[in-house]
Structure formats: structure tokens, C-alpha cells
Amino acid sequence: MTATSTDLDQLSVNAIRTLAMDAVQAANSGHPGTPMALAPVAYTLWQKFLRFDPELPIWANRDRFVLSAGHASTLLYSLLHLSGVKAINADYETIGQPAVSLDDLRNFRQLESKCPGHPEYRWTSGVETTTGPLGTGIATSVGMAMAERWLAARYNKPGFGLFDYDVYAVCGDGDMMEGVGQEAASLAGHLRLANLCWIYDNNRITIEGATGLAFSDDVATRFIGYGWNVTRVGDANDLAMLERAYTVFRQEQARPTLIIVDSHIGYGAPTKQGTAAAHGEPLGVDEVRAAKEFFGWPTEPAFHVPAEVYTQFSNGVGARGGELRHKWEAEFAAYAQQFPDLADELNRMQKRTLPDGWDADIPTFEADPKGLATRESNGRVLNAVAGRVPWLVGGSADLAPSTKTLLKGEDSFEPGSYDGRNLHFGVREHAAAAVANGLALSKLRAYQAGFLIFHDFQRGAVRLSALMELPVIHTYTHDSIGVGEDGPTHQPVEHLASLRAMPGMIDIRPADANEVAEAWRFLMPLRHEPVALVLSRQALPTLDRTRYAPASGLVRGAYVLADPPGGDPEVILIATGSEVSLAVAAHEELTAGGVRSRVVSLPSWELFARQSKEYQESVLPPAVTARVAIEQASAFGWERYAGTEGAIVAMSTFGESAPLKALLTRFGFTPEAVVQKAREQIARHRGDASAVSAPDHG
């Protein structure tokens, strides 16, 4: 290494540091210490190793860089700016503007800046995943690494090594403490993901002070136990040792790699280096000035970048990445000539479009009073779709026999069988959802499955799929007190309300097998929205669609399933999922008794909320205020549809352990109880007590 190159390296490292310091100081908010410490670590990776083209940051075979320690966001923003990453629009087109300008850095954490407090996917080009909740970034990186193994196994052919990218993730002590990170590390070690490298910033500082307050793990030994290759860099400023560590990772062929880097948070700050004060607050004007003097940097102006730093990045990551990307594009063009069908799959996958006729095998289910559990019908539809969409992959957290989400005839994804489409997450619910996000970020059509009650464990990662606008299919079975004898620990009550409260999450709770089929016709073409598909354990009647409205009404969120034989309804019964057949049974009894009732199937609150006011009022006429809402879950939120004076047959406890029929009777989910509520509603809204003819089961 020449003296000139050494000087340019140090100049570039200090440019990253000072941009991070200035951005946090200008915002009077942020985390300067970690970017100051890790600037040499990130610079060496980007400049010497990362296969990434700033001109096209969505190139399919690029290496992925995940800043799991998302509070250190100015580290990533500085790299995106200095390397000249170009912005990409929603249609995957390069629009010629920088992903991060100096003005964006000047406006760090301000409204509309491309530099929000934590990195956000789809907001800032070059950000591979939204990070911030600690542990989730590294867990997501496991999904990205799994995706590369799958893509390589399916699409690489003799003479064509289309996929061989690596995944790097920068993590800190918080990532090492959070459970989801350890779930993911265990899974990655089991799967022998040799294309995965985590860089652990061992700075021994958290918000409250020294990590010794609460953390004394031997991280290296723990990861060796997970089956990882572990190496160490004793000084984050040692560029030669960093190069050696990255080279060790590149040479490792059988295990994921953890690089432990010993660093000093706030490196260069004279009074705050190595202290918690450098973590989550600006250094202060005087400390910034002193740190710049330590680095030999001009104290003014702020956001100063020497021209040769831009040239250095252009000649490094820019030149290398551009050459590799152009070579890959030429290789792909030749590949498309020899393997046109596989090339077509890859093109469709990258743009999140589907094969022609992808839904041709979705079954139609005949009317059947005994019916199927929607988890069962979902399994049949899932397999019908998977047969025509080869990149639909997924699995469950050790529950596939119960969730019915196994792809029949397909192998398991395991070492030596990376083309398998059945993923096994083990009993790692949070990691399952985070890994699914990583798969989706890599453009696979991903699903993950589990019991609805265990959504509690994975809410953080599920929330990120909504925030990132990823079309992950979150499949939840055992959706109600219908799990019976397992009791309140396994009976979800508040979970539907929680999912419905999540912005951007599409909730779908199908009433029968044909609503399940329509759910898949709707959800598969989605490109930017996740779905929570909520399914029953118990059998539900398959409704006779010659008597009742077609299930295609599901796409509008709610629809009129049944109406009175003549005249306007006196009362509206509104239900979701397993309770729709209950509403139908009550409707038939009311009709036989001369009461005009309407049944509304409301499988998706989110989709119904998107409909026009005219459509909503055609389903739920404002004039009909006698209403009964029915759902084996919390009543929270149902006033929206039942009205302030409507009846809500729902749960106000966590349930009980008992056979299903006993539970339904105990909590009022019987036709007799619903009929009684309907008659009470009619009487109340007429002011006619004589309309009530049955005892109160409410």
C-alpha cells in the first residue's frame, strides 16, 4: 500500500466521521458515536470488498449491506452520499438523482429528508432493509443469505454463475442481546450460510453505560457453538487487519462468519470517546470542533468533503461494482438465450409480477355443510398456486403439520438442498417473520406460518413488513377460542385488533373454502403490501354459493352474503371468518320467523375501509341501525360497524379450556344467542319490547 493510497484511505474514513458528526449536530438529535468508531470498518468493506454498483443499487447479484445497528444511520447515509448511489423510483427506474445529497445530510432527521433517524427501505435508495429495532436487521440478513442460496441452487447453470452475492450486517451489543438475533444466528449456523458475515461492533457501551451492567456473554464462544466461523479485529482503526478479516470471510466455504471488532465509541472526541454520552446525543459544538482537530480536519465549514474523497470512492466501489454489474448483465443476456424460461422467471421475480395463468389451478369448493377448516382449504390453494409460481417459498415455526402449509412434493431447504422450497424455522417465531422479510427483500414470494396466538412473538418483524411495504404472506391458523381444550394461553383474543391497527397490513379472515380461494386470487398479485391471512382450526361449512352471494365479494373487504326474501332488512348480522356460518344459521332462523335480516361477510377491515362511501353504505345502510357484530375475538373496534347502539357478540376474557361446543355456548356463539341479540336490536330500535321472544343468552 503506497503512502498516497494510505492518505486517501484515512481522508475518506475521516470524511465519513465528520459527515456523521455534522449531521447529528445540525439535527441536534441522533447517534454520532458509532459512526465515528465504525467508519474504518465500513469504509474498508465498501471500498475494497463490497460488490455493489452505485449507478444501479438494485442490481440482482449485488452484495447486501445491512446496518442492523440502525441508530448509526449517518454511517450508511455518508457511504451512500460519498459513493454516489443513484436514486431508484417505485418502478425500478434510475432517475439520475443522488440517493443522498449533502442537503439531505444537512437535513438529517428533518421532514422529507432522505436521511430519517433510522434507515428506511423504499425511502432511501441503497438502504437494503429498514432497521432500528435491534436484532431484527441481522435476522433479516439471514433471509437475504438464504435467498441467495436458493437463487443459486435454482438458476445457476454450468457456465452461468448468476448468483453468488454475500450479505454483510453491522451489529452491536444490542443486537447480541435481543432474542431475535440469537434465534437467527442459531438458524444461520444450522443452515451453514457461508455467504453471511456479521460485523460485531464490540464497543462495550449501551445507553445506560458500560455493557457490564447487564451483559457478560462470551460472544465468540457462543457463536462457535452456533456453528459459526469467528475472527477478531482488535482495533477498528487497523485497516490491514480489517482487510484480513474480510478475506477470511470470503475464503470460508462452510460456515457463516462473525467478525468481532473492538472499537471506541465516539473515537476522536476528546471528552466523550468511550462513554455513553457519545451514543445517543449530539457531541456539542465544542466537542465536534475538537474532534475535527484531532482528525486534522477543517473545523469549518460543516459538511466539508474534499473532492479527492469522491474520486476515491468512484475509483473503488464505483469502478469495481460497475464492472461486475456490466459483466453480469452480459452473462444474463447469454443466459436468457440458452434458458429463456428461467430468465423469464427471474425478470418477473425482480418486478414482482406473476407467471401467466398462475391461478389456473386454484380449486372451486363444492357446497358442504360439514366443510373444511380454512387452514385445510388454504393448504390446498397454497399448493395449487405454488405449482405455478416456482419462487413461492416459505414455512412455519415448527408447525407445518398444524398450519397445513407444507408444499407437497417439494424438498426442504437445508444444506445440500438449497433449492428446497419448504423452510423450517424451528421454534423461532420472531426470526421466522424477519427471515420472511429478508426473502421478500430478495424478491422471492415469501410466506411464514404459525398460530395466531404466536403473532405476539413476531409483531416487531411483522410491523416492519408493513412499514417496508413487503408482500409477505403472514399465515395464521388456530385463530380463535376454536382451539378449545388448549385453553386461554392458546386462544387469541386481542390479536385481530392488533393486526387491524397496523398501517398497511391487509387483514383477511375468510369465512369458508371459497373465500380462501378468493383471498389468494387477491393477495398474490400484490407487490407492496403484506397480508395477515387468518384461518380456522375447526371445520367450517362451505357455503352454497347458488343460495348466497359469490365469494368474489371478498376483494372489497365486505359484501352482502344474504338478504331477506323481500323488502329491506330490519337487522344486519356482520361477521368474519368462522362466525359467518353462525350468522347464516341465525339468518335462516330469523327468516323462518318472519324477520328480515341481512348477513354481511366482512373478511377484511382494511379492504372494506378502502372502498367508496357509496359502496360501504350499500353494504351497511346507515338507516339500518339494528345490527349484531359477531367475532370470536375482542370487541375492540367493532363499534365502527355495529354502531354505538349495536350489539357485539365477542370476547371480553381470555377464554377457557373446554371442548369447542361448550365454549361456544358459554360465550354466546350459538344461533339461538345471535337470534336473541337480533330480536333485541329490532325491539330497541323500534321501541317495541314485544319483539323479544327468547331468553337472553348474551
Notes on the structure:
It is a single chain. The protein is of the alpha/beta class and 698 residues long. A 6-stranded parallel sheet has the order 12-11-13-14-16-15, with helices on both faces. Helix 1 packs antiparallel against helix 10, helix 5 packs parallel to helix 7 and helix 11 (307-338) packs across helix 12. It is elongated. The relative contact order is 0.09. Mean pLDDT is 96; it is low at 689-698.
What order do the helices and strands come in, and which of them pair?
Layout: H1 3-27, H2 33-48, E1 64-67, H3 73-82, E2 86-88, E3 94-98, H4 102-106, H5 136-155, E4 167-171, H6 173-177, H7 179-191, E5 196-202, E6 205-206, E7 209-210, H8 219-226, E8 229-233, H9 239-251, E9 257-262, H10 285-295, H11 307-338, H12 340-350, E10 368-373, H13 374-386, E11 392-396, H14 400-403, E12 422-424, H15 429-441, E13 445-451, H16 455-467, E14 473-477, H17 495-500, E15 506-508, H18 513-523, E16 531-534, E17 539-542, E18 559-562, E19 571-575, H19 579-592, E20 597-601, H20 605-609, H21 613-619, E21 627-634, H22 639-642, E22 647-651, H23 660-666, H24 671-686
Parallel strand pairs: 1-4, 4-5, 5-9, 8-9, 11-12, 11-13, 13-14, 14-16, 15-16, 19-20, 19-21, 21-22
Antiparallel strand pairs: 2-3, 6-7, 10-17, 18-20
Strand order of the largest sheet: 12-11-13-14-16-15
Q: What is the number of helices?
A: 24
Shape from CA axes? elongated
Question: Biggest β-sheet: count, sense, barrel?
Answer: 6 strands, parallel
Count of DSSP strands: 22
Given the helix and strand composition, which structural class is it? alpha/beta
- Percent of residues in helices comes to 40-55%
pLDDT below 50 for ≥5 consecutive residues: which ranges?
689-698
Strand content: 5-15%
Report how far apart the termini are.
81 Å
Average pLDDT works out at 96
Radius of gyration: 28 Å
